Amino acid sequence: MLRRHPRVVIRRSKLATAVATARVLFRSSRGTVRFLWRYRRPLVPVHAAVSLGTLGAACGATVDGWKTALLLDGALAAGVAWWLRRRRRMDKQLRPAKRVYAIAAAGTAGALLFAMAARGGLTPPMPGLLLVWLLATGVPWWWHHRIRDHGDLSAELELWESRVAHEKGALTGSWLSDFEQVADANSSRAIINLPPGELETAQAVSATGRVASAFGVPPSNVVIEATRDGANDKAQLSLYRSNPLQAVHLWPGPHLLDHETGVAPIGVYADSGHVPYRFWRPGSGPVHDLIAGTTDAGKSRLLDQLLAYERHSPLMVSWVIDPQRGQSLPDWQDAVDWFADSVAEGKKLLKAAQREMYRRNRLLARMVWTDEKGRQRRGKASFTPTLELPLLCVTIDEAHAILADPECVKIAEDLAKMARKCGIKLRLVTQVPLLSQLGNSQTLRDMVAAGNVVVLRTANRLSGQVAFNGAIPADPHALPREFPDGSTTSGLAYSLGPQSRSSVLRTFYVEDPYDWAVTGETTTLCEEGIKTAGKDYATWRHRRDDAWSEPEPTEEEQPAAAAMSPVVPADASAIDTVHDYLTRRGEPVRTGVVAQALDLPLPTVSQSLRRLGEEGRAVKVRHGVWVAAINTADDNESTSEAAA
């Protein structure tokens, strides 16, 4: 027979039992919390249903619970409206289907809460309706957040480990987390975790080219930028199989400008987010611009968009200098308040802007106004555009040609340093943002580079580094000249403004700039501003029309014109000399012939002839051909003497 061992009973103290029970409860609670946190997104509908049932039971337990339910419904509606508006302002607007889902879920939840409060809590049929609501809202949510077959993601993770994170890789010791494939299956996103104390976000951004090489795609298909929380040991990776910026994005129109903030989108990033651009900062003043890019990079098309924004806003006045005789911006020659198509005309414009700056300084320094505390104060140190005092935007295209004149450089420096507080914005556009192209003025470049900086494709690596001044580690030189299908990459750029993303963008394409130039109304200066700008401002169109009517020198006149001395103004002596020559000549003569015969500069002769024409002492026979006017007073006097 088998002998049974006596049973040993171990008795625990009450304290040991309590400790063991507490450990079990703690481990169970910790496991539950970890489970709920790990699957927090899929469990959102369950959490919402439990919360809704709890609130409904609490409201139903009181006599006037329906009033509390109404207050909660109002708070829910306000919260949903604020959330949708916030996403729209952050350029994260939901798609129509998702927006309808969010509004419908919130609306039915509010109705169900009120019904439970009115019927006394979770009494039939409320539990069934709550279950129906959970299924109706949960099924779309679970389908959207389902676990997808990532397929190629394992291969991408392996490529990262073998080609990027190894000992001699671009980002040694880094690893990827939160890797996900976007719904359109064209892009993948992940968080790059960098070894703390060894690598930082800027180094990850600068390694974009090597990461693109590791994945075998063009550099423009890889975007590495800072994370939203700004952690310096992490970076955001976006990998695109086909570049979404290859498609042309048409400009929707000037209604995108927010007049409250002074911000307007000028393009899109690869993730479809809008690229913000700031015209002015309320309570501070305008923001200067520096726009750079090589030939055929898209500078003129970007200017088309900015000028269209300005023309269709009553708060902005546009002055433009295009030293290429208006060829860079032909559609805007008659659509802005002042268009200078030469270096000489541009100098007049800058002088007028400087006078307007000093006038506004005096005006704002003496202005009496009432602050938000009801105190009456004198003098304003900041600027916000109004209908009475609009923002004056001075655009200088091909800035190197204008800033070759030292006087223009001095005026531009004054505008960059002092004009912001009185509402004058300076925009420099150049191919190469080096000092030699900006009048050798470090001050001027620093002032405009502190505002909006947009650098399109450049011809060398130095241009991007100089323009951004190290603010974002971007390399516009690496942007391709053409896409793989041969289409143009015009508009690809990097931007530093309200956002400092190191992501490639593409500016909007203005399909018909002439249509935007002839619609809307041209905003002008006020009466005092017009007086301050002076005669040059009032007569710029007449000077341009006269210059257009002046013929180019003939082959016979070219040598004489080339040998002429620098331009001098047409004073009284020059005018009389030209008039005497016309009188002696007695027959029509070309402007160039007069200049050659009198050894005077051609522009001086042209000005003298126009003055003689205005005084009635000379007559223009046709373009570039003049003759002395007949002196009728002398003829009448001679006739009288003969009769006597």
Morphology call: elongated
Q: Order of strands across the widest beta sheet?
A: 6-5-18-17-16-9-15-14-10-11
Helicity range of the residues? 40-55%
- Class from secondary-structure proportions: alpha+beta
Q: Radius of gyration over alpha carbons?
A: 36 Å
Number of strands: 21
Number of helices: 23
Task: Give the percentage of residues in beta strands.
Answer: 15-25%
Largest sheet: 10 strands, mixed
Mean pLDDT, all residues: 83
- Unreliable residue stretches: 148-152, 555-569, 631-644
What does this structure look like?
This protein is of the alpha+beta class. Helices cover 44% and strands 15% of the residues. The protein is built from 23 helices and 21 strands. Strands 6-5-18-17-16-9-15-14-10-11 form a ten-stranded mixed β-sheet. β1 and β2 form a beta hairpin. α3 (65-89) runs antiparallel to α4 and α12 runs parallel beside α13. The chain is elongated and about 130 Å long.
Keywords:
alpha+beta, 10-stranded mixed β-sheet, 4-stranded antiparallel β-sheet, 23 helices, elongated
Short summary of the structure?
The protein is an alpha+beta fold.
Reconstruct the topology from this structure.
Layout: H1 14-38, H2 44-60, H3 65-89, H4 96-118, H5 126-144, H6 153-164, E1 175-181, E2 187-193, H7 201-206, H8 208-215, E3 222-225, E4 234-240, E5 263-269, E6 274-278, E7 280-281, E8 285-286, E9 289-292, H9 299-311, E10 316-321, E11 338-340, H10 343-366, E12 368-370, E13 376-378, E14 391-396, H11 399-402, H12 406-418, E15 424-430, H13 442-449, E16 452-456, H14 461-468, E17 492-496, E18 505-507, H15 513-518, H16 527-533, H17 535-538, H18 540-549, H19 558-562, H20 572-585, E19 589-590, H21 591-598, H22 602-615, E20 618-622, E21 625-628, H23 632-643
Parallel strand pairs: 9-15, 9-16, 10-11, 10-14, 14-15
Antiparallel strand pairs: 1-2, 2-4, 3-4, 5-6, 5-18, 7-8, 12-13, 16-17, 17-18, 19-21, 20-21
Helix pairs in contact: 2-3, 2-4, 2-5, 3-4, 4-5, 6-8, 10-12, 12-13, 20-22, 21-22
